[in-house]
Amino acid sequence: MKRLGALTLAAVLAIGGLTACRGGDTENDSSSSGGPKVDVGITKEPCPKSEHKDRGCIYLGIISDLTVGPFKALAVPITEAQKAFWKRVNTQGGIGGYDVDAETYVRDNKYNPQTHNEVYQEIKGKVLALAQSLGSPTTAAILGDMKANNVLAAPAAWTSAYAFEDNILESGANYCIESMNAVDYANETFKPKTVMAVHLAGDYGDDAAAGAKIAAEKLGLKFIDVKTDSGTDKQAGAVTAIVTQKPDLVIVTAGPADVAAIVGGSAQRGFTGKFIGTSPTWNPGLLQSPAAPALKALYLQSSPWKTFSTDSPGHKAMREALGSSITPNDGYTSGWVWSYPLLAALKKAQADGDLTRAGLVKAAKSLTKVDYEGMLPDGAGNYAGGTDGIFRQSLIYNPAAGNGTTDVPLVKDYFTGPTAKDYKLDKPCYEKL
């Protein structure tokens, strides 16, 4: 599965003016039928592809890495799963007399913050919320505008900064907590003396590296920080740092192709220590790469939730909605999981009689739990709890030991390590790196 984020963040662009939705079709008061208050991104007219002509339409935007960025192999299935998720919602009755459209306003960010902002400006006056905003640095490029205009988003990312944002509905353990748990797991199993974090710069890599640093320092282990750039041809420095400084454990946070270059290159030069990759570092296609033998020997994967073939009601619903023609990929799993909190917020806002943007943000902030249909444990989705309510459990897999898709051996089920259990999140972890 993938956690996403980490090109150099371009300066956040100026906030654009909020435009009317669909030429003024959106209502600004309670509907004539006595329904909830609405404003941007909701129309009386049915969704373009809806079979339910008696329902209005809630438009959600998706901004993802669909063509040329480092996470496109994950982003495409993430997006397809989210389309399928909202189609299922419509089949089950929609939201208070409305279907949900998560297809009309899908845009490609090319994993570039400036492009992300540009396409956001194109669609923001036409959608109620964002069903997906992929990437930590890319989402950061629009966050100021989102807050100014009460735009709620489900991020395809896990930076710890989201715990401080009312306009973000994150799911699962953040990068920082995930890495704390990974180091604690390693400390219990193979007793490393030296921990190195090899990572991309920015909210993604720095957040994970900070978690590794916090855990290593608490455990009295030596910590080494190594930043790298995205690109398989840019990993020589990271490989050299690994083979010369010989850490016992490397927490690696980059793109999948980068990780293949790092793990494969290090093994080729004689490194025999352990790697644990944060969740966005893995793609099953790596098992067809030249690095596959090294990954099988040295690599484990931390994860915020269980894999595609897991037996839970949510996983089963996802597989049924997607059909049998797809190739299993945990991008689908992530896209499906990320959709539950926004569904819960929409239902709460509708029940409160206020489906305006402000009403949706208020509803989201009031959630004390989310029904993930078993895809996350009880206790996930406590947005009302603020930083104290963040989810702190993660898992460890050995994906290279299986086939990377339907057979992904679980090493350690949901757990919270001692570092994460006691940690007080008082600011984004990456600020402590």
UniProtKB/TrEMBL annotation:
Listed PROSITE patterns: PROKAR_LIPOPROTEIN (PS51257)
Domain Leucine-binding protein: 58-375
Chain residue ranges for the region called Disordered: 24-49
Keyword Signal recorded: yes
Signal peptide: 1-20
Domain of life: Bacteria
Keyword Hydrolase part of the UniProt annotation: no
InterPro entries the UniProt entry points to: Leu-bd, Peripla_BP_I
Keywords for this protein: Signal
Gene3D superfamilies: 3.40.50.2300
Family: Belongs to the leucine-binding protein family.
PANTHER family according to UniProt: BLR6548 PROTEIN
Protein name: Branched-chain amino acid ABC transporter substrate-binding protein
Source organism: Dactylosporangium sucinum
